[in-house]
Design brief:
The structure holds 2 protein chains of 2 kinds.
Chain A: H1 2-13, E1 19-21, H2 22-32, E2 37-40, H3 47-56, E3 62-65, H4 69-83, E4 87-91, H5 95-98, H6 101-109, E5 114-120, H7 136-140, E6 146-149, H8 156-168, E7 175-180, H9 181-185, E8 187-189, H10 209-221, E9 225-229, H11 231-235, H12 239-249, E10 253-255, E11 270-273, H13 280-288, E12 291-295, H14 301-304, E13 315-320, E14 334-337, H15 340-353, H16 358-377, H17 391-401, E15 407-410, H18 414-422, E16 431-432, H19 443-453, E17 459-464, H20 475-480, E18 486-491, H21 496-505, H22 521-528, E19 531-535, H23 538-550, E20 555-560
Parallel strand pairs in A: 2-3, 2-4, 4-5, 5-7, 6-7, 9-10, 9-12, 10-11, 12-13, 13-14, 15-16, 15-17, 17-18, 18-20, 19-20
Antiparallel strand pairs in A: 1-8
Helix pairs in contact in A: 2-3, 2-8, 4-6, 4-19, 10-15, 12-15, 13-16, 17-18, 17-23
Chain B: E1 4-12, H1 17-27, E2 34-39, E3 45-53, H2 56-68, E4 72-77, E5 83-94, H3 97-109, E6 113-117, E7 121-128, H4 130-141, E8 145-150, E9 154-157
Antiparallel strand pairs in B: 1-3, 1-4, 2-3, 5-7, 5-8, 5-9, 6-7
Classes of the chains: A alpha/beta, B alpha+beta.
Chain lengths: 583, 170
């Protein structure tokens, strides 16, 4: 009904404020925020919004209909991680909302700006146990940065403005906005605020200069420094500053899982990932460092191993935008609350004005030769001679054949760790993985989000046969929208990471981790109208990858891999980093 | 109690704010010994007084996590400075004929008040600091306490230091 829109525009040009419906307000607000893509699933409580979306806004938004609401949030999250812009999600009340919880918790742990709009029963029915009613604001309070129940149509525009502001500033995070059906149907005047003030929310982005000076002094004297970079470097767009900082000082860099891509993995200063499945040399570097510079990272237990012994000889500088991350797990010497971009920029200025002591630089050379020794002592390795497919070999081939230029998403478990270890990420926003929550089923819908954002990029979900089945229904989505996502299943018939722990620490009792009963993934792909390929021998790996990359549409590649291959090196949970199990 | 801490938080007077605070405490396994909340002179804000305990590291996290909640305007650790704290307690004690005189004596000593009298019991209202409340409860326990209802602590800094939005001392 284009005439409705025309009359609104006409009225507004003439200074007349017409009242429009809550649904129209919502969609016009999203437009004002620059949103062009919405992921979601319809239902009774949001039927008015969907109606308005199709009748009046079909030109403005690309709507991606997923097949399960959890996938809608993961897809919006993948979109946000790949682009840096907030991901938007629209679902119905009750089960529509409760299905978003895993997606919200994922985005919350990894600080991803996702905004979920849920339908709600009409305000007079709230609290009556109405059909498809759930207290979604109550349910999602601990897994969102903030959430709202919009009580009246008049509050809608300002609430949306505030939601975008809070989601994307400070330490970003997911926001849920609950929309009762009558609020969506009722009319109000629409005016989208240009700016919003939230007096109780003032994130601190700028570094405290005296702290920067203290940090710079430690950096000037450091003999065995390590930069430990996390996802905050990517979030704040500080990868260039990190590059400049590390190269000007010649400091080695290790990264968390969330930080992969924030510093080029192919750069000689890169030590690889640290922590439980980090490289030997990254962990040895932490263990022997005299200065640790943590930037946009939060000392997660998977990173530190036994906290008491983590970097025990090192002075620690910690740059993070979230004050609660500082002094939470580790006592640090110089805390700086600011975003990684500002922190690094100020440090660069300080150190350009006055450089490092020549004596410390002499010692730094020795440190580098030690790091080389550690690298040579234990490189990541696997058996390359066998015809049984090694999962690491698949990832290495994916890297080689995509020339490192793909966006990689992962599921959770062994597939995730092999992806992190064997694909080399040179650019930020190219490795999308559920780091904090560790949500199986994340990778495929996240790949959908990334592919929607970048239709011409190669997007590959590195999956396990367990995880992929948690959101396998999205095959219909990729077929419907012709999204050429590639799914590489490292199929070992096990919930492999748990099986690996059972092998090492639970007497080889494989309690319910054998999942050999599974669909034929090639036929399954075909059943959905996608392409299915399979490799059962190492010599076939290269060809099926090439074949999949040539294929225009979505492809599942079923790599039948060594059933008992483990992820190594490994630091057992709660052990100090230096106690690595190497093979 | 070891490491007793009194926190004063100025929060927006909106639905769900108490749930956010309580949920943060329970979700992170922090202790709440008492919590009292009511609107301030400015009805847009409420004041929460939260009494908690724990070591310094945990306490630092509590303060930071409170500040991180979007609806919280100001958070202050009152135990860092001088403050006055009070709690109101209603105590129902057995007070049959012989014990009644003893109960009245205790009430007088503590400047408490009798707010209800029945055949064999008295209800006493007492206001005071933590120490005073504990002392009167101990003395009355020999008479036989039937019921104790406590409001939880409310507290305010001494001197000119205020708690309102815009005041220093955050």
């Amino acid at each position: 009904m284009p005439h409705i829109k025309t009359s609104i525009v006409f009225a507004e040009r003439n200074g007349i404020k017409l009242k429009i419906s809550g649904a129209q307000i919502l969609l016009r607000s999203l437009k004002a925020e620059g949103v062009d893509t919405i992921f979601g699933y319809p239902g009774g409580a949001v039927i008015d919004i969907f109606d308005t979306l199709v009748k009046e806004f079909s030109e403005e938004f690309r709507f991606i209909l997923v097949r399960h609401e959890q996938a809608a949030v993961h897809a919006a999250d993948g979109y946000a991680r790949a682009t840096g812009r907030p991901g938007i999600c629209l679902v119905t009340s009750g089960p529509g909302g409760t299905n978003t919880v895993t997606g919200l918790a994922t985005a919350y742990m990894d600080s991803i700006p996702v905004i979920v709009f849920t339908g709600q029963v009409p305000t007079p029915l709230i609290g009556n146990d109405a059909f498809q009613e759930a207290d979604i604001v109550g349910i999602t309070r601990p897994c969102t940065k903030h959430n709202y129940l919009v009580a009246q149509t008049e509050d809608l525009a300002s609430t949306i403005k505030e939601a975008f502001f809070i989601a994307t500033t400070g330490r970003p995070g997911p926001i849920l906005v609950d929309l009762p059906k009558d609020v969506v149907q009722n009319k109000a005047q629409f005016e989208y605020p240009d700016k919003i003030e939230v007096p109780t929310y003032k994130p601190n982005v700028k570094a405290h200069l005296p702290s920067v000076k203290r940090a710079a002094e430690l950096i000037r004297q450091a003999e065995r420094p390590v930069i430990y970079a996390g996802g905050g470097v990517i979030t704040s767009g500080a990868h260039k500053e990190l590059y400049k900082f590390a190269s000007m000082l010649n400091f080695p860099v290790t990264s968390t899982l969330m930080g992969l891509g924030c510093f080029p993995a192919t750069h000689p200063l890169f030590l690889g990932m640290l922590g439980m499945h980090g490289t030997f040399r990254a962990n040895m570097a932490i263990d022997n460092a005299d200065l640790l510079l943590a930037i946009g990272a939060r000392f997660d237990d998977r990173v530190t191993g036994r906290v008491e012994e983590f970097a025990r000889d090192a002075k620690i500088i910690h740059i993070d935008i979230d004050p609660t991350s500082i002094q939470k797990n580790i006592v640090v010497d110089v805390p700086i609350v600011c975003d990684a971009h500002d922190g690094l920029s100020r440090l660069i200025e300080e150190l350009e004005a006055k450089g490092r002591s020549p004596k410390a630089d002499e010692k730094l050379k020795e440190w580098h030769s030690k790091l080389t020794v550690w690298r040579n002592q234990q490189r990541q390795r696997f058996d390359r001679t066998t015809e049984i497919i090694k999962p690491q070999f698949v990832v290495e081939k994916l890297y080689e054949l995509t020339k490192g230029d793909a966006i990689i998403t992962t599921e959770v478990g062994q597939n995730q760790m092999w992806a992190a270890q064997y694909y080399l990420f040179d650019n930020p926003r190219t490795f999308l993985s559920s780091g904090g929550l560790g949500a199986m089923g994340y990778g495929f819908p996240a790949a959908i989000g990334a592919q929607v954002a970048y239709p011409d990029k190669i997007v590959i979900d590195i999956a396990g046969d367990g995880s992929i089945q948690m959101n396998i229904q999205e095959l219909a989505t990729v077929v419907q929208y012709k999204l050429p996502v590639k799914i590489a299943i490292l199929n070992n018939g096990y919930l492999g990471m748990v099986r690996q722990w059972q092998e090492r620490f639970y007497d080889q009792v494989y309690a319910h981790t054998d999942i050999t009963v599974a669909p034929d993934f090639v036929k399954l792909a075909e059943a959905y109208g996608a392409v299915g390929l399979r490799a059962t021998r190492s010599s076939e790996v290269e060809n099926v990858i090439k074949e999949s990359l040539k294929t225009k549409g979505p492809v599942i590649i079923d790599f039948v891999v060594d059933r008992e291959e483990g992820v190594y090196p490994m630091v057992p949970a709660g052990a100090p980093l230096k106690d690595m199990i190497l093979v | 109690m070891e490491n007793r801490k009194v926190i004063s938080a100025l929060v927006e007077n909106k639905p769900g704010v108490l749930a956010r605070v309580a949920g943060m405490f329970s979700g992170r396994s922090f202790n709440i010994d008492s919590l009292s909340v009511a609107p301030t002179m400015n009805p847009e804000f409420s004041r929460m007084t939260i009494v908690t305990h724990g070591n310094e590291a945990i306490f630092e996290q509590i303060i930071k996590q409170l500040r991180k909640l979007i609806n919280i305007s100001k958070v202050q650790d009152l135990t860092r400075g001088d403050y006055v704290d009070r709690e109101l307690v209603l105590i129902k004690v057995k007070a049959a004929s012989i014990k009644r005189a003893e109960a009245l004596r205790i009430v007088e000593i503590f400047r408490a008040r009798i707010v209800d009298v029945a055949q064999d019991n008295l209800t006493i209202e007492v206001t005071g600091s933590q120490g005073k409340i504990e002392a009167i409860l101990e003395l009355l326990s020999s008479l036989g306490i039937l019921e104790v209802i406590r409001t939880g602590t409310v507290a305010i800094p001494r001197g000119r230091k205020g708690l309102k939005a815009g005041d220093s001392g955050d």
